[in-house]
Amino acid sequence: MSSFDTNPFSASAAENPFEDPSVTQVMNSTVTSVEQFYPNETTGSTSPAVLQPSTEPAPREVAAAAQADLLRRQEELERKAAELERREEEINNRNRTQPGVKENNWPPLPGFCPIRPCFYQDFSEEIPPEHQRVCKMMYYLCMLNSLTLFLNVLAFLALFITISSYGQDFGLALVWLLLFTPCSFLCWYRPVYKAFRTDSSFSFFFFFFVFFAQVVIFIIQAVGIQGWGNSGWLITFSVITSNKVVGGIMVMVAVLFTLCAVLSVILLKMVHGSYRHTGASFQKAQQEFSQGVFSNKNFQNAAASAASAAAQSSLHQGN
């Protein structure tokens, strides 16, 4: 009966979890009160809170640091600029030493002159040997023409100082010097130089056209019509009777004009003889001209603009 008196729902001491020794030890131990873990309470010290000093730099220090940074950057930029300039100088020196790169050498100006040479010419390198003599004589004629025009200005300056009525001739002489000196070099000497260098038919024909006009001008200058600014023979004979000194200067200029006229006729025949042996022709000149014109970008742009304008005009008319 004792088995029936036992409560089936009662747990034995061994099975009661609250009677476990580890649990009862914790429950019976002295626990620190919750008040000791109050988070706002400071332990060990009752001194008031002290603000820490700021570690940010002063404005003067910031300005000094910025200035030092700017100086550093400026020095770096100057160093890079010097390096670029040095490299550019090295490239220029390398180009001068390379055989394929040609540096302009005319007019022969001194090194300190700010204006640099505009053209390159070398008769022995660029002109065939059979044409070098004629080409050099054309160059000497161009230089002689410039010298004659300069002496012509001096002659009329002396004449104008002596006789004030010749002021118009002095002004025209100065105009001829400033006009014919560069035009002679660019309009007939450089074309004949290019013609001999590249065997260009178009350059030959351009030279013949311009140089024939130059021959006529040389003859007019040698004649010396009064009021035209040329110290030729006619005006020289009229002046030499009244002023021997000025007349002597004008005689020398008239001789140079006559020499230029004679040499121009001779050289025109010599260039024409060389032209006949180069195989140049009028058909080749036309081809070179057409190729040069059609390959020109300005001409291409102008032709495209004209075609576009014509197409738009036709469209508007159709509408």
Structure, described:
This protein has 319 residues and is mainly α. The protein has a domain at 150-276. Helix content is 69%, strand content 0%. It contains 11 helices and no strands. It has helices at 2-5, 21-28, 59-97, 123-126, 129-162, 167-198, 201-223, 233-240, 244-276, 282-294, 297-318. The longest helix is centred in the N-terminal third of the chain and has 39 residues, at 59-97. The chain starts with a helix and ends with a helix. The model is unreliable at 30-38 (pLDDT under 50).
Uncertain spans, ≥5 residues at pLDDT below 50? Answer: 30-38
So what's the overall shape? elongated
Helical region count? Answer: 11
Please summarize the sheet with the most strands. none
Termini separation comes to 127 Å
Radius of gyration, whole Å: 51 Å
Q: What is the average per-residue confidence, as pLDDT, rounded to a whole number?
A: 77
Helix share, percent: 55-70%
Strand content: under 5%
In short:
By secondary structure, this protein is mainly α. 69% of the residues lie in helices and 0% in strands.
Task: Give the tags.
about 325 residues; mainly alpha; 11 helices
Present the secondary structure layout.
Blueprint: H1 2-5, H2 21-28, H3 59-97, H4 123-126, H5 129-162, H6 167-198, H7 201-223, H8 233-240, H9 244-276, H10 282-294, H11 297-318
